Amino acid sequence: MKNLIVALSLTTIIATFSQCKKEEKEEKKTIKIDPNAPPRFDSMNWFTAIKFHPLPKKEIYDYRKVLYNFHRDYWQTEPVSGGMLVAKNGLILFEAYDGFADVEKNIPLTAETPIHIASVSKVMTSLAILKLVEHKKLTLDQTVQSILPSFPYPETTVRNLLNHRSGLPNYAYVIDNMKLWDKTKQISNQEVLEIFTNHQIPLLSKPGTKFAYSNTNYALLALMIEKFTGMSYPKAMKYMLFDPLGMEHTFVFEFDKDKDKVSSSYGFKGKKWAWDHLDKVYGDKNIYSTPRDIYRLDYAMYSKKFLPKNLMKEAFTGYSYESKGIKNYGLGFRMMEYPDGGKFMYHNGWWHGNYSVYVHDIKNRVAIIALGNQQNRKIYDAFKLVGVMSRSYPITLKASNVMDGGGPASDSVPVKKAR
């Protein structure tokens, strides 16, 4: 264990938030909004704008004890390299940072180390799209073809991309199985579109009829963000979301510029993961962030000023009921929907040696964030904490794998257990 923050004092919390307030106030003074500029999220100080009911001291103590034990028993038995943060009612109850950003250079992983968040990137891509929808740059039921004219499937809508009901197969499998790409070169988002345009790739199902998780959807959404903002996706996300929310350690990975600067990714046995031909595509992945920065985003989502109520409702609504079960997908968010009406949002991710978990439990005001840069499925165990923190859902720490019924997560791949 390298950096463990268990019992944050009220003084520390107030000082931290006061500093955030001061920094954001100074930043806001310097921001001049161009009326013709793309829309962006508000740069207000969300920590002071949103008030939560304070937790009783006994409850805080009990939560911290459980979280400390979880970190000790789940993350340290098979040591995790990564960071986790758990908060409730606007109070950070636990943080821990372990392992290394770069093993070879002996650089420790800290609270300020950006880690590849894998498919949790989809949450941020979807929020940028919803902000554009709010400002009438596009609509959810607009066809993709009306925005990207070369897109060859006329019935597919923006909503179909967001909720993974487009029927589009995953571009990674398409180009590998059909041998459509030279793996010595990195493929870009535009080239992903061109693959589908030029090779008559069959859909897995008619748009809007079935759920099929596909990274292709979010690679195309990134192209839409570029079109409507007139910026590259990395610059657009920084302008629209990261800067206004004070996410100082969050950025979109740009292969040519960042490949030698970012925290490393490692396999089970500690071998550094090599870059491959898919590492240039963004929107579906390729955002680097920290637990604290994602918590800033989580906190802001409670404000009515973040996005209009109707759009947040659309994002947090399940769209796929053709199969029985409690799992569903909204617009950029996974969710668990229980027969008694209980529901919470989450997303998990995997890319190379990076695993990620993000839980947004609105009803119980709980945020759970876990990021890791070395393959270890123990990172996914952080998801189970939602049952402990809310006491509203039938999820226990003793479950074998609540992420996907005992198997690999839906946006992960089967991996061998570390020996």
Q: How would you portray this structure in words?
A:
Pfam families: Beta-lactamase. It comes from Weeksella virosa (strain ATCC 43766 / DSM 16922 / JCM 21250 / CCUG 30538 / CDC 9751 / IAM 14551 / NBRC 16016 / NCTC 11634 / CL345/78). Residues 84-376 form the Beta-lactamase-related domain. This protein has a single domain (57-390), classed as 3-Layer(aba) Sandwich (Beta-lactamase), CATH 3.40.710. It has 13 helices and 13 strands. It has helices at 10-30, 46-49, 57-75, 121-134, 158-162, 171-177, 189-198, 215-229, 233-242, 255-258, 291-300, 309-315, 385-390; strands at residues 3-5, 82-88, 91-98, 100-102, 107-108, 115-116, 251-252, 287-289, 327-329, 334-337, 343-351, 354-361, 366-372. It has an eight-stranded antiparallel sheet, with helices on both faces. Strands 6-8-7 form a three-stranded antiparallel sheet. A two-stranded antiparallel ribbon has the order 4-5. Strand 12 and strand 13 (366-372) form a beta hairpin. Helix 7 (189-198) packs across helix 8 (215-229). The longest helix has 21 residues, at 10-30. It is globular and about 60 Å long. The two termini are 21 Å apart.
